[in-house]
Amino acid sequence: MTEEREGWKGYVEWEDYPEKKARARKRFSRYKFPPPPEFQLAPVPPTNPVLEGVRWKLWHKALGGALEDVPEESWRTVLKVRTTPAPG
Amino acid sequence: MLHLLQFPYNGEAPKGLLIQQPVTPNELHFVRNHGGIPDIDPAKFDLRIDGLVNNPQRLTLADLQDETKFPRVSKLVTIQCSGTRRFEQIQEYAGEGDEMINAPWAEGAIGTAKWTGVSLKKVIKYCGGLKDGGKHLEFYGAETYFKGGELMNYVVSVPWSKVKANEVLLAWEMNDKPLPRIHGFPLRAVVMGYIGARSVKWLYRVKALAQPSRAPVQSREYLYYQQQYGKHNQLPHRKYWLHDVL
Questions:
Q1: Mean of per-residue pLDDT scores for chain B
Q2: Out of B4, B7, B181, whose CB is closest to A56?
Q3: Could you tell me the pLDDT band of residue A81, with boundaries at 50, 70 and 90?
Q4: Count of domains forming chain B
C-alpha cells in the first residue's frame, strides 16, 4: 500500500485500481478482528475519547505500508488543533 | 472537546460551548471522519474533473483561486451530520453497531461557518459543461475507507440540480482562515442543505455520472428506515423483515 502522489501524505488511490482493491481484500481476509465495542445496549464509557476505534486501527495495521501510521497521525493532528477542555 | 471516537476521529463541542455564538469557531466545529487525516501539500495539489464532462481537466489550487477564471464566493452554511443526537436514536434503533458508522453523537454534530471558494457550477462550465446524460456529480475524498473488508476512497454524489442552483461550493477557507487540515485542507465540498456526509473533505476528484453514485457510502450507508407502516416494511432486508426489527 503505497502513497499515490508525492506531497500527498495519507492518500492511497483505490478507485483507479480494481486489482489493488482485490489484493487488499485478500490480505484483509487473512486476519480475524475483534467485534465492535458494545455501546448501544449499555451506558457509553465515561472516558474521553469515549470510544477508541480498536478495530479501525487494527484494519489499518493489517494492510500496513502507507496506512500503518494513519491512526497515530490522525490523533497527533487532533491533539494539535482540538485542545478545548472536555465537558463536565 | 468531546472526542467521541479516537480513530477515525469523530469529535464535537459540548452544547454549552456550541451555543455561545451563531458562527461556530473552527476549533469547535464538529469533525466526522471516516478514515485518516491526509496531509496534502497545496503546491502539489490538483483537482481532477472527469466522467461525463466535455473537457476533462486537472485544476490546481491556483487555477481555482484565479478570479479571472472563477468568481469567488463566500456563504454562511450550517452543516449537520445526519447522525447528530444518535445517542438518543440508538435507544430506539440500534443500527449495525459499528463504532464509526453509528458513533453515539450527542447534540454537537452541527456547526455554522463562512465558507469561501468557488461554485462547482462554474467549474463544470469551465470544463465545457456536462455531456448528454450527465446528471450527478461524484466526489472523491483522499482518505482510505474500509467497508466490510473492502478498501476504497470516500465516494458519494449529489445531483446536478443541486450544483446548478449554486448550492455546492469547492471551499479552501473556513471563517476567513485557511481550511484546517482536519476539515479537509486543501479543498473540500460544501453542499448546502444536505447531510454533512455529502460535503466531502480532501476532495481530489469530481466525476460526472448518469446516475447517483453506487459507492457503498452512498448506496449502503446513511439510509434510515423510519418507523413506517407502509408496504416497504414487507420487503426483506439482509434476511430480516423490517417490521420485525423496528
A1: 91
A2: B7
A3: confident
A4: 1
Calpha distance B152→A15 (Å, rounded): 6
The complex's ipTM works out to 0.93
A-facing residues of B in 78-107 (CB < 8 A) are 87, 90, 94-95, 97-100, 102-104
Contact B152, A11 (CB under 8 A): no
Q: What is the DSSP letter of B73?
A: E
Taking CB atoms and an 8 Å limit, are B99 and A41 in contact across chains?
no
Residue of A11, A44, A72, A75 best to disrupt the B interface, most CBs of B under 10 A? A11
- Domain range holding B40? 2-245
Query: Is B11 touching A (CB cutoff 8 A)?
Result: yes
Q: Is A87 within 8 Å of B2 when comparing Cβ atoms?
A: yes
pTM of the model: 0.92
At B52 the pLDDT is 98
User: Which residue stretches of chain B are H helix?
Assistant: 15-18, 61-64, 86-89, 120-126, 160-164, 216-219, 242-245
Query: Which pLDDT tens digit goes with each residue over A33-80?
Result: 999 998 888 888 889 999 999 999 999 999 999 999 999 999 999 999
B28 touches chain A (CB under 8 A): yes
Which residue would you say has higher pLDDT here, A83 or B142? B142
Question: Is residue A73 situated within a structural domain?
Answer: yes
- Are A37 and A54 within 8 A, CB to CB? yes
In a domain, A47, yes or no: no
* Best to test chain B binding among A67, A75, A82 (most B CBs inside 10 Å): A82
Rounded CA gap, A70 and B75, in Å? 32
Domain residues for A77? 1-37+52-88
Query: Which regions in chain B score pLDDT beneath 70?
Result: 224-246
